[in-house]
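In the previous lecture we treated proteins in isolation. Real proteins rarely work alone, and many bind small molecules. This record shows how such a complex is specified: first the sequence, then the SMILES for zinc ion.
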Amino acid sequence: MPLKLSYKISPINDTIFRISLPLPGYPPYINVYLFKGEVNTLFDTGIFWTWRLLRRALHDLGLQFSDIHQVIPSHGHVDHYGAAYAIAKRNKHVEVITHIADAKRIEEGLYNKPSIMLKFIESMGVPKPLIVPLAFLDLTFKSMGHPVIVTRKITDDQCSLQVGNYNATLILTPGHSKGAMCLYIEKEGFLFSGDHIVPGVKPIILAGFEPNTSFPVAQSHTIFHTSLKKIEKLSPNHIFPAHGEPFQEKLNRLIVKYQKVYQFRKKRMYNLLLNNDYTVYGLARQVFKNLKGINLVLDLYLSLSETYTHLEAMCEEGDVIKYNFDNTYYYTATLL
Ligand SMILES: [Zn+2]
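The predicted 3D structure, ligand included, written as tokens:
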């Protein structure tokens, strides 16, 4: 996929800047936030492939990699920590800060082994010609990041630290990934939401699968919704997501919207399962009918992830049962 090699700088105020860096496929770009001042800080970094663009953008803002005091990947996905290594390599003093729950995947570039991924994809009922491209996509994700040593691992659910000229709070909001964090600046009412809150999409869809030694693990919708509740009491006047444009919306309204979409989609899947047993792939093709074109493989990966996480939640709740037949998992609705 061609990567448009440009970046965009959008000032938020005199010392906070949004640097949008390209991503291949979807979402099309990631927002890296720079807090300039006493403690020059980057919240997220973009992928390793675009570290030179990040360096140029910082240069436009009067900074070098050597001026950066701390890099905080919001969580352990490649587009958020991928370029941290490029900075750490050129700046021995930079602090790389992340929550301990995601530190391992940042330090080891932890991804599922291809053999495990192939087995897992097969178990979802994916037709043979699509299995290899999907497993290859997982490897491509891996190449977009470069492992980096995390110098400070946060163990608390919440911690205060200085970013730029501000006192900020890092809040653990697991769901999209285990160690996902939001950054809140109370004084300005700014919430930097990473992938926990993204406009237009329910962020769990971008979650993919947590690596595991035997089989990848689905992200938990239950944990995600608990994390939404956790930040509901904050009343930010602006939300700055890692993907998409900053927006203003009352958090409680947004959370209600997320819950509606989640319940609606579960109901829809349940109704389909009442008429037929489905594999993850079979159900994903029913629910997401418009998958085609250049992004087919990536769209398929995301829709499989979304369908799988819903099915696992429904199994937990007892509405759906999963059974194994010929190395493939099928799901069936239990009658209420
Ligand atoms: Zn992510």
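Summary for your notes: Residues 75, 77, 176-177, 195, 206 surround zinc ion (CB under 6 Å). Residues 8-108+148-255 form a domain with the Metallo-beta-lactamase; Chain A fold (CATH 3.60.15.10).
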